[in-house]
Amino acid sequence: MLYFINDYQEGAHPAVLERLAQTNLIPLSGYGTDEICQSAKARIREACACHNADVFFLSGGTQANRVVISSLLKQYEGVLAAATGHVSVHESGAIEASGHKVIELPSSEGKLDIRAAREFVSAFFADENNEHMVFPGMVYISFPTELGTLYSRAELLELRSLCDDYKLLLYADGARLGYALASPECDVTLSELASLCDVFYIGGTKVGALIGEAVVFPKGNAPQHFLTLIKQNGALLAKGRLLGAQFDALFEDGLYFKLGKHAVQMADELKEVFKRKGARFYLESPTNQQFIIIRNEEIEKLREKVQFSFWEKYDEENSVVRFVTSWATSIESINALEKVL
Amino acid sequence: MLYFINDYQEGAHPAVLERLAQTNLIPLSGYGTDEICQSAKARIREACACHNADVFFLSGGTQANRVVISSLLKQYEGVLAAATGHVSVHESGAIEASGHKVIELPSSEGKLDIRAAREFVSAFFADENNEHMVFPGMVYISFPTELGTLYSRAELLELRSLCDDYKLLLYADGARLGYALASPECDVTLSELASLCDVFYIGGTKVGALIGEAVVFPKGNAPQHFLTLIKQNGALLAKGRLLGAQFDALFEDGLYFKLGKHAVQMADELKEVFKRKGARFYLESPTNQQFIIIRNEEIEKLREKVQFSFWEKYDEENSVVRFVTSWATSIESINALEKVL
Amino acid sequence: MLYFINDYQEGAHPAVLERLAQTNLIPLSGYGTDEICQSAKARIREACACHNADVFFLSGGTQANRVVISSLLKQYEGVLAAATGHVSVHESGAIEASGHKVIELPSSEGKLDIRAAREFVSAFFADENNEHMVFPGMVYISFPTELGTLYSRAELLELRSLCDDYKLLLYADGARLGYALASPECDVTLSELASLCDVFYIGGTKVGALIGEAVVFPKGNAPQHFLTLIKQNGALLAKGRLLGAQFDALFEDGLYFKLGKHAVQMADELKEVFKRKGARFYLESPTNQQFIIIRNEEIEKLREKVQFSFWEKYDEENSVVRFVTSWATSIESINALEKVL
Amino acid sequence: MLYFINDYQEGAHPAVLERLAQTNLIPLSGYGTDEICQSAKARIREACACHNADVFFLSGGTQANRVVISSLLKQYEGVLAAATGHVSVHESGAIEASGHKVIELPSSEGKLDIRAAREFVSAFFADENNEHMVFPGMVYISFPTELGTLYSRAELLELRSLCDDYKLLLYADGARLGYALASPECDVTLSELASLCDVFYIGGTKVGALIGEAVVFPKGNAPQHFLTLIKQNGALLAKGRLLGAQFDALFEDGLYFKLGKHAVQMADELKEVFKRKGARFYLESPTNQQFIIIRNEEIEKLREKVQFSFWEKYDEENSVVRFVTSWATSIESINALEKVL
Predict the structure, then answer these.
(1) Pick from A230, C16, C287, D336: CA 20 to 30 A from residue A49's CA?
(2) What are the pLDDT digits (tens) for D92-125?
(3) D91 lies within 8 A of chain B by CB
(4) Which domains, from first to last, does chain B contain?
(5) ipTM of the complex as predicted
(6) Is D131's CB within 8 Å of A225's CB?
(7) Does C297 reach chain B within 8 Å, measured CB to CB?
């Protein structure tokens, strides 16, 4: 069986696991106050070129989104997101359960339609009846998006400008950030992203860690008592070291970026394979997720030998399926895929 | 430096870490649907002698308490707990943040005063005005308690009977369950506990795992769509294997019980040391947490060589301090402590 | 000045106020347990032909929506609504603040697109990944809609059938119910509506009362301890008589229906006036709210003599404005309007 | 039948009802933006001698408490209250449902034990572990208390000082404020109270209105977009005039204070009656609620002729019962009571 179903099917990159093993018996203080966490945070600040950044480690993407969004929004505010955004559709209503509306806006290929966002916000603040509505408080983007696409530097600047004009916060969900930054199509660096966002997270779970997302407040702008809010959300680990050690390994000698690069290269190989087979792509994705249009009757047959995921119906006869590479994808598996197709 | 500050200062028991390493590169399905999780759940059902039990893995104690309590209570219900219970004082208001009152009741040495609980519940249901109040919906106990003490089998039966009489749920927080079951003073087995509770969790984080608590609904009585509720709380790990593999190791060949036994034996040695030094105990704890009364001026001096925690003021001149053993405590460290005292 | 700005600009219908005055000094029990509330509930059951109905009085529409929706949905469920629905846009996020997502669906002239709703629900339950999403739990409709339009009996049956097929609840927001039932275009009676819905409310605030909405569970299907949930939401009035007396007057001798009829007749007169003036209608509304397309430059001038509300931009040169009639609108004011136009 | 069961058994004071009737058909803008509300607010500012105060009208006490407390507290904060406080016991968990813990502290005769409160707060901020706990954010008092007692000016100053020392907010629940201010034992004026609190409410429902509580932020310190928060809580009335007109009448020519005075005089008469009959008082209440110790067997017999409320068990043979006077109590009814006793 070949595996292209997602980017969390394996455990951790060996160097990450090794760091856990090496540090395993050192007695450390709890709740993320230990030296290993401090070291990991220092490395992340360095990588982001944000020397005053507040960094917190959380366990997963939905948790990070819920904790960050609910901690930063005021009670009368909601978060703007693409209708296809993770917070809009695949978090079981986590944001709403924390009391806030996800204001779903038009999107294209996974990206928030920035013009539509500006129109919405501008109309909102012009509406004399807006006290009866949910105030926009934050713009949420995924980088890369759920469809593997990227915002350009110019688009991020436009979003920043929108946020500045209306005093909104800009938040980037970086569940697969490593796979964005490694893409040749990506024209922003980590430090540029950090300078443009009010808060973002660097995804570990899908980029080589067993678990863990590093939430970064680039300007040292974490909300007051954020640790208490993490605890209240049930998101504070007693053994903070579990997260710290993994990020410490990932941000040593640029491992995180190397893992990203590997996955994107494997995605390029995958694309070539599909192109050689004459496959149609649903969209042009420059990162580790590839969306292929496939005839319905081929799906079951292919599944006998390859794991991939059904994305959505394309038309009566065809479906969109997703193939994903990761830090763990080997060239051998891609060659094997070519034989199977 | 000697370390008796808590039971989560080290990483995982080596066998647990090894299981993670061995299974690391096996591609597995996500969100706890994989075979390793299935294996771990089967072992836990076996250990609890509950063959229809629903088992879910969560990351930490506060998370488990929040998810379980908020999923099981109706909106008009609260949870009864000892005023000293973890949910009452040390969870940053996680239960209230989920919308429910923690109804704090009198306690003694960490244990809920069962007579007071019965009086409260009985008075509540006799009050014709009770529609304006929070309905009792669940009894929460910690086993062992935050003060290391244990409910006897007879007391658990009394609690069960209270719950049956008023249709309340009985929930046991087993953050340190391994250290309870291993105590010679404990007169219930894991399967007896399972038969008495509606839901409980088996703590991993403090008993040899890096992270993880196994929530058990002994009668297959998990609430509908509990997985979705876990996700909504931000508590669902993409790599469920991280939790499954650890519990699979802990419940193979009784490792969990061995770790518990070791910690309790070390606690006995620790008690002997303190007794030989003439120390006064704040209370008689039969598990891995020991509470000693110490003169205020000795605290700082002792801290130069030993890590332990301040618990509370005892009187003007004395304080209560806590010394904790765990699966990782060595007899050498206890011998060394004797020399330091 | 002429007033067509909304249907809540005056106080109560004189008969309603008189009932308050007549009963003012009778000592009554609190919280809606009094005889006047009982009488009003009996009249409402009679009018709905639902002799086992549970009836509760609340203060306003957003409150009714929040209390009803949050009490009936399970934690993992959301409510489906037209994107233009009151719960979607004009309740300051009240539903989300109670923890539930409003799943906004396409609509046309204020009405939920029933085909789109069925497609959404059907796709949801077919999605094997749906445990990561918000479950549809209820369909919310406004009757009449925020745009004055009505669902036909056939459409309501279709909605009922959708709800039956997927075990969803059907809830009708009747803030202006009196103005729907009185419309010649309306082909359902109150008792038919009651037989089709799981819950609905009969709006008082906009139909002759000072305050008050009567929530009806036609099959005696109110959630357990609903009174406690009302209290918890801060929605239980000590002097329940205030609501009971008003509904008692409104449902005596069909007053509620007479008020509805008057308003719809006045709306017909208003339409004729606008037609004679050659005005364009934004849509065909058979109830008390009329939406006219007007040139932007005329708005300010008209406002010197008439109060009405701006609805939305139509195109660069024109706007949609709303004129509303109510139980309190006089034929004289409509004649006066004709002179002004 | 004689009625002493509570202070909300009648409707409104005739002058209040008359104001509603007089203004009934004036077309007014909605949601509390009308001139009558403006007038009422101006009168309240005048009465409080707070010319910059923000004033908002809400419908009931639990609603006011929920909206005020949840709007002012930060997510990591709770509210301190007497264990007997209304927010602690008789609001169906409204505060917790909004996400915040009510931190219940010792009390005596309904009054928060100020020394215990200071000890609690001081210990909290000294605890190095406090990030795992709920932060105290506000002190809630009832004035008068649920047991009819009053804080002295000196005690209020002490509370203010505690709040200043630890940056807590001081909030007074004035559901029966008129009955406090009218008591000869009360040594603070309304304007003094206003100068000592960060926020308080002037109760209308129990002091002559049909419905309504006036929330006052004496220093113009209402939270941003408080109207939106009111709406989100389902607490914003379309016909704000209903509340405005009543408070406009209550604060014209000191009516509110006269009603308070009358009730306290009637309570004094009531006390004399009981004293003459040799009754024992549960405590010394200087306001409109009187608590009498009565033999259990007398309760049912007395209930044949008088309505009063059972408060709590006193001992095996006796109970505490409550007799309440109000603006509506007549001397005739008290004379009649004397004959019945």
Answers:
(1) A230
(2) 999 999 999 999 999 999 999 999 999 999 999 9
(3) yes
(4) 2-7+256-340 (3.90.1150.10), 15-253 (3.40.640.10)
(5) 0.98
(6) yes
(7) no
